[in-house]
Amino acid sequence: MIEFLKSFLFGIVEGITEWLPISSTGHLILLNQFVKLDVSEEFYSMFEVVIQLGAILAVVILFWNQIFPFGAPEGSHTVRRRQAKHAHRKKKSGNGILSYVKMDIIILWLKVLVACIPAIVIGMPFNDLFEKWFYNYPCVAIALIVFGIAFIIVENNHKGKPAKINSMDELTYKTAFLIGLFQLIAAIFPGTSRSGATIVGALILGVSRTVAAEFTFVLAIPVMFGASLLKLVKFGLNFTGTEAIILLIGMVTAFVSSIIVIQFLMGYIKKHDFKVFGYYRIVLGILVILYALFLA
Fold first, then answer.
1. Residue 93 belongs to a domain
2. Which domain holds residue 36?
3. Which of 111, 196, 271, 292 has its CA 20 to 30 A from that of 36?
4. How large is the greatest C-alpha to C-alpha distance in the chain, in angstroms?
5. Burial of 214 from C-beta contacts in 10 A (0-12 / 13-18 / 19+)
6. What's the sign of the alpha-carbon dihedral 96, 99, 105, 109?
7. Which stretch of DSSP H or E encloses residue 63?
8. What is the model's pTM?
9. Which ranges form a coiled coil (predicted)?
């Protein structure tokens, strides 16, 4: 029962920190120092990644209309426009398949695929090496502080300036690829925050806060699903009954907390900037350094 409660706590931390730009990996590394799960090292290495599937499911549900490219409702303005546009094709084919394909969403997924290229080419093949070299207190603390400062600087520089990109449609493939490069930083250095890196990168590139956050959420779907799948394949499916329950509790808890946090964040950024997260990261980074020096 104690291990189940610990898994519940890990799920909450994952769901909160995965979407706020404060580093889920960094927080889980720190949490594991104080609330260590009584499981094998191999299982925990898989667990801290695979519970992200719960967080990903939250994104899929909340953004379903923005990410699912098929089956637009009959009679909507979008469908009528597409039906008119492809009327000649419908006459030839005898069906209206193209009328129910949202090309703007297909294009969005192509941009997401382009943004994933750096992670696929560099992040995945060398993931074990990155974990071996950089998953430690000093790297987590440095990443927390450096990107905390970056948030503050970027927000100060963009204060009062209109964003160049204010919708997903305005994102170019080049911009998507560059955002993917920023995401790669998080794959290498724990404590950076995947959402934090992509949001900072997007802001630097002139993307509005809302679009930066939305693209970050959608981009997380293939990246985190792929990382979770690789961990599951590497670990295998030889779970004990207790391990299966621990993993399930973590995933469900991450899902519920992610739903709440994503809705909060999308409302928050409409009226506020990201500097508060920058200050939080700096303070937490300093505390990590002090802990490593005097208590670890």
1. no
2. 2-72+104-294
3. 196
4. 76
5. buried
6. positive
7. none
8. 0.82
9. none
